[in-house]
Amino acid sequence: MQKQVVEYAGVPVGIVIPDQNQLRFIAVKYHVIDLDNQRFQSITEVQRAIRSHLNEAPRFAA
Fold this sequence. Notes:
Number of helices: 1
Distance between the termini: 40 Å
Structural class: alpha+beta
């Protein structure tokens, strides 16, 4: 596998690159920076982690 863009709600939020038989997530958006450099078994696992992270993130008033 080559590097691959990861999107959330149609917006690119990072990329994954192969690393030690896993996929390492590289965040390109601040709201997913806590997941930066974590390793996952699949793209589906990355997407689940992003969704979970964003659903648990505190909301700030605009």
